[in-house]
Amino acid sequence: MNLIHGLFVYVEAIDFDFKIKILDPDADAPCKFIAHEFVNGSLKDYETVLAFGEDCDTVTIEIESVNIDALEELERRGKKIYPQPSVLRLIQDKRIQKQFYKDNNLPTADFVLTENQSDLENYKDFLPAVHKLGKEGYDGKGVQVIRTADEKELAVIVARNVDGEVKTFPVVEMVFHPEANLVEYLFAPAEISEEITNKSKEIAEKTAEAFGIIGLLAVEMFLTKDGEILINEVAPRPHNSGHHTIRANDVSQFEQHLRAILNLPLGETHAHSKAAMVNLLGEEGYSGEAIYEGMNECIAQGGVHPFLYGKRFTKPFRKMGHVTIVEQDFEKLKEKVIFVKRKLKVIA
Amino acid sequence: MNLIHGLFVYVEAIDFDFKIKILDPDADAPCKFIAHEFVNGSLKDYETVLAFGEDCDTVTIEIESVNIDALEELERRGKKIYPQPSVLRLIQDKRIQKQFYKDNNLPTADFVLTENQSDLENYKDFLPAVHKLGKEGYDGKGVQVIRTADEKELAVIVARNVDGEVKTFPVVEMVFHPEANLVEYLFAPAEISEEITNKSKEIAEKTAEAFGIIGLLAVEMFLTKDGEILINEVAPRPHNSGHHTIRANDVSQFEQHLRAILNLPLGETHAHSKAAMVNLLGEEGYSGEAIYEGMNECIAQGGVHPFLYGKRFTKPFRKMGHVTIVEQDFEKLKEKVIFVKRKLKVIA
């Protein structure tokens, strides 16, 4: 059993005693110290990925920008590659992805391909819209959201195993940082009607089936002010919108991912607690060795769990980790979110 | 930050981004692959432990049979050693431990020191009793329990940090394997009255204060048929009776241990779910490469979480791992415990 990339997935794998090998472009990746075998190399280099996978039974990813040709070659050589390279190819180009939704009658925001700024000017009446690089966008990079005030952004993570068993995590609501264009915080479950909940899950499951994905598919959606649900984009891997599942659900997205790609029975996704996730972004105006100001006050609050990514240096808006907050009561949860956002700062 | 020994504590430490070094006598210890630094060596050898600790800020343990002279020397050299060597010395000799309870008016089963079998014959009217080696007993080894039918065994884990803050986990009930003399399964919370619950917690907290321990203290107690609570013994470390806290409580015993020895605010011990823990013991009549028969049927049940220790070979009653089961409903929990105990077998 081997994985390309992945800290949290690895931690879950320990409990199942899977042997794991990780490829990461960062020689000091946090996962370096906890892999049975760690390879430092480019995920985009054909030879590197091919060589990495040659002694693997199963290969998976935690980031889409991987050399897909190499994964396809490994697949031809009989390796299990999940998510499938064909799905990665579909998703990797956001223009093809958009077309795929149209072809499969999946609701998505209308889109136009713009080549330059003046193009963009012609579509002022076109909001909400997301302006993205056709390729290589990741975690907000290369993505520019043009929002209107009053819509929500929802996400649903669907797991599908090799036998086609499907299980879906509860719907979450994401709130984006206005400048950084990263999820700033998240609430699980989303405060939406049962009707919208079911509709979002149904769309997410249909999307996973349409792709025929094996593994996780995180489906990000817009809920418009008219109650319309539109697919924004998908991620074929454990996702920021599922980090809280480690603390709030029967099975975490990371364990579920492992179960799916190894064709084990999928776990129950039931949430035993309400949860919020606050991304820890480097404070504006600070660059250098990271200091986590206010950490002690925060962890003194019940149910506040920091997950630091082991990055030594901070810079404005760099994602340094996240904090999961679990509570039985939604109002208390919101109070703790506000407390953590006010107290906890990544400075230098 | 460095630890002597410890898989689970380490996993929790990742989230806090602590750098950890582990000493383990087993060259293939499961923790080997997930430590920033792994040293293979004897925990009982003075020079080994001393050398290991010399570049440490803080040293802790997950097993008591460690060279205490070396820990004392490290303490003299200004290292933080938690639990304190003085406490380890008190606890290491069960005869001194027993006397300590007497001296501190802590309720404990009466005891006599027996040197041989014929001695033992003279104390037939002395049940319930536990026959233990004076030293070196661990996990039931060197311990022979002489039980009567109708008492319960309870355990309470207390955490105490450097500032003396104390937090206590809910009381659990342990059921022992008749032959293996290992905890066979555990229920959290114990099905006992509020009065007994409070009394057990109070005794556990008094005991932790009496020792002045920094870290965790697991206090094992007998609840006699007359409702009397007697301390059986204590363990100054994360304990089998707290494994379920990873899945059922706001903070796990492992994270709590780290918080205590690093003098961080202690976490809330609130249980969001009811839990059971089933130890995975090697099936009688099987020795060799371990096979986990029935694993898939078990993990298909919601809330069933295996924790395998990565041991390659099984033998009768060898502790190969454990399974934590979480449920909201106590009857469902019991059904799942029975299911797991019936289905899941470690064979070769």
How would you describe this structure to a colleague?
2 copies of one chain form a homodimer. With 348 residues, chain A is an alpha+beta fold. Among the domains of chain A are: 2-81, 3-Layer(aba) Sandwich (Rossmann fold); 273-348, D-amino Acid Aminotransferase, Chain A, domain 1 (2-Layer Sandwich). Chain A is built from 11 helices and 19 strands. In chain A, the strands form 6 sheets. In chain A, strands 7, 8, 9, 10, 11, 12, 13, 16 and 18 form a 9-stranded antiparallel β-sheet that branches. A two-stranded parallel sheet of chain A has the order 1-2. In chain A, helix 2 (46-53) runs parallel beside helix 3 (68-76) and helix 3 packs antiparallel against helix 4. The first copy, chain A, is globular. The two termini of chain A are 39 Å apart. The model of chain A is unreliable at 137-144 (pLDDT under 50). The interface between A and B is medium-sized, with 34 and 34 residues.
Instruction: Tell how many strands the DSSP assignment of chain A holds.
Output: 19
Largest two-chain interface: A-B, 34 and 34 residues
* Percentage of residues assigned to helices of chain A: 25-40%
Rg from alpha-carbon coordinates of chain A: 20 Å
Order of helices and strands of chain A: HEEHEHEHHHEEEEEEHEEHHEEEHEEEHE
- Text of the CATH class of one domain in chain A: Alpha Beta
